[in-house]
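User: structure tokens for this one?
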Amino acid sequence: MTEKEIQEDPVPEVQKTAAEPGEAADATEVEVEFAEGLQEADDAAVAAPEPDPGAEIERWKDVAARAQADLENYRKRMAREKLEAIQYANRGLLEQLLPVIDNFEMGLKAAESVEGGELILQGMSMVRKQLSDFLAEQGVEEVPSEGEAFDPNLHEALKQEPHATVPEGRVLFTLRRGYRLRDRLLRAANVIVSSGPPPAD
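Assistant:
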């Protein structure tokens, strides 16, 4: 291409495309909305009331009072559990001792029927009293049974028998004594319960 041809062929101008009218309008709307949002936030900040120092103090006082009450309840619960642990520490030992006492009482009854065994009976009776005193010192007491109304929380009924005078639901005989440690049952009493008067022939 010659110099003359270059001069005759002008460089095409770059046409600038103007933004569409809708696009300019959209940008303007966004700016307006943004400005309005800032204004609303400023208005809300101005309108928001200042925090009340007195209310804040009262709130923290309430929090402190609740924490103090929780701590006091915890201390009381720990003291109660410690006392219960001391009171019922020997429960397992006492439960294992009860069958030994049962066998001893069976031997005591057998000694009562033996002629010439007064000295043996006297010695066994003294031991029985020592055992009773020891149980009492530990807070163990016998569960009342004979003649009492049957209580499934304290008694274990092995069978029922009719009886002419003892009403239904009353304990006739105690086959094995029951014991409790203070307010807790160590062992239920094995009993025979009356079923009331026998049916008429």
